[in-house]
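Issue 218. Parser rejects a valid record. Input:
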Amino acid sequence: MRNHLIKALKRKPIVALVVGAVVFTSAFAFAATLGVTSASLGAGNAAVTSCASSVTTAYTTAYDSTVAGSYKVTNVTVAGTLTGCGNKNITVDLSNGSGASLGQVSRAITPAEATAGTLTLNVTGSVSAQAVQNVSAVING
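Output the parser choked on:
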């Protein structure tokens, strides 16, 4: 009986090592099956190319006595090399000096706008022009 017990105890570390190796290799096998593309966010890495090499933004204002500073942002114009951006979505965020969003507008870029290299987004609501410190544009899709 004693010999049988000693043999069983000697096998337990080997069994634990085998189970650990199976679990460890399974985790890598499952991770290897995750798909990553430049158009989606997931686990892993992939090269992400930009459809625009350089863009600039500008905004127009209109008088509004109900807004702090009396002027609100009415439109944001994005211009640059947008040739590859047709049918992609653009989101423009207007933020204050602390980085807090004051307003955001999104829509699809038409192929004609992409070819022309300029598009205008209408800002709804009452975003105070005085409070805007940063304009950020993100194109995705």
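Fixed in the parser; the record now loads. The helical segments are 2-32, 111-116.
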